[in-house]
Amino acid sequence: MSILVTGGAGYIGSHTCVELLDAGFEVIVVDNFSNSKSVVLNRIESITGKPLKLYAIDLLHREALEGVFEVNAIEAVIHLAGLKAVGESVDNPLWYYKNNITGTLNLLEIMNKYKVNKMVFSSSATVYGASSSVPNSEDSPLKANNPYGRSKLMIEEILGDLYRSNPDWYISILRYFNPVGAHESGRIGEDPHGIPNNLMPHISRVAVGRSDRLSIFGSDYDTPDGTGVRDYIHVVDLAKGHLKALEKINRVSGINYYNLGTGRGHSVLEVIKMFESVTGRNIPYSLTNRRPGDIDKCYADPTKAKVELDWVARKTLSDMCRDAWRWQKNNPNGYEG
Ligand code: UD1
Fold first, then answer.
1. How confident is the model at residue 222, as a pLDDT?
2. Domain annotation for the chain: domains and CATH numbers
3. How close is the Cα of 307 to the center of ligand 1, in Å?
4. Looking at 96, 128, 148, 170, which residue is catalytic?
5. Ligand 1 in contact with 83 (CB < 6 A)?
6. How far apart are CA 252 and CA 308, in angstroms?
7. How many CB atoms within 10 Å of residue 331?
8. Looking at residues 175-195, what average pLDDT do you find?
9. Each residue of 32-49: pLDDT tens digit?
10. Residue 123 CB–ligand 1 contact under 6 Å
C-alpha cells in the first residue's frame, strides 16, 4: 500500500516524502511542477536511498489523476498541492479558487470512487486571520483575510461536510505556522520563484548575494521590538508531524484539526540576529512600511498535537537558520544550478 503525496515535489512535500520513505512507506508523488522542479525527486531518492513513483499531473486533469488511483493501491493521501502566494491570490482570485478548490474536489471525488478514505490536509495558520488573540488554539475563531486563506478555510469546511455525510472518513487537518529551514543534508530546501514573499528565503538570498538588502515590513507593531512576531517551525519537524497525523488516521476515524507550530514567537529582528550569529553573514536591512494584510503577532498553542499526536517541534530557531543557510549556500541558485 502506498501513500499519495500531492504537491510532493514542493518545499513541504519534499521534506515529507523523505520522512515517509525513511519510515518505510511506499510513496507516490503527484505534482504539476508549477512551483517546483523535477530534480527534487532525484534528491529525495539520493537522500533516502529509496525510489518513489512520480506522476507529473495537475489535479485539474481529472482523468489523468484517476489513472493514478486505477493502477496503484493507495492507502492514504497527504494533500499538499495548491497555490500559496497571498498577493497573487488577491490579484487573481479565480485562478486560486479553481486550482485549490476544484483540484481538491477532483481529488476527493476520485478518492470516494476508489474507496480511499484517509486524508491529511495541509492547511495554514492563516485561517485564524487577524482577529483572534494569540496563542491560537484549534478552537480560536476562524477568519481568512484573502483568497488564498479563504481557499484553505473552504477546503477545511468541505472536508468537514464530507465527514458529516460519511463518518467513515479519516481526516487530519494540519494548520502550519511558518515553515522555514531545510533538510540537514543541504540537498532539499525552499526555492521560491522570483523575489521571495516570505522572510527566511529572503534573508538567505541577501546572505548569498542574490539580493542587496531586506525590507522589514513594519517596525511599529505592538510587539517587544516593533517588528512582526511569528511562530517559525523547522520544515523537518513539520514533515514529521504529517507522519504522526498519518499514524492517527490509521487508528481512528473522524476529522481532527491540529496546529503545527513551536508555541514560541520570534520577531523579524530576532530572526535576522539569529541568522547573522549562526552564519557569520551580515544581513543589511531597511525599516519600511507595513505589508498590507500583515498582522502583528501569530503563534500556536501546539498542546493538542502533543497530546493527541505525540508530536512536538524539537528544532530551535538556531537550527532553522543554520539549515536554511546550508541549503542556500550549497544551492545559491536553488535547484536551477
Ligand atoms: C505568509 C502569508 C501567509 C502564509 C505564509 C506561508 C502574507 C500576508 N501571509 O505568512 O498567509 O500562510 O506566508 O508561509 O503573505 N517580513 C519582512 N520582510 C520580508 C518578508 C517578511 O519583514 O521580506 C516579515 C513579515 O512582515 C512578517 C514576518 O516577516 O512579520 C513573516 O513573514 P512571512 O515569512 O511572509 O510569513 P507570514 O506573513 O506570517
1. 94
2. 2-186+232-262+300-314 (3.40.50.720)
3. 28
4. 148
5. no
6. 11
7. 19
8. 96
9. 999 999 999 999 999 999
10. no
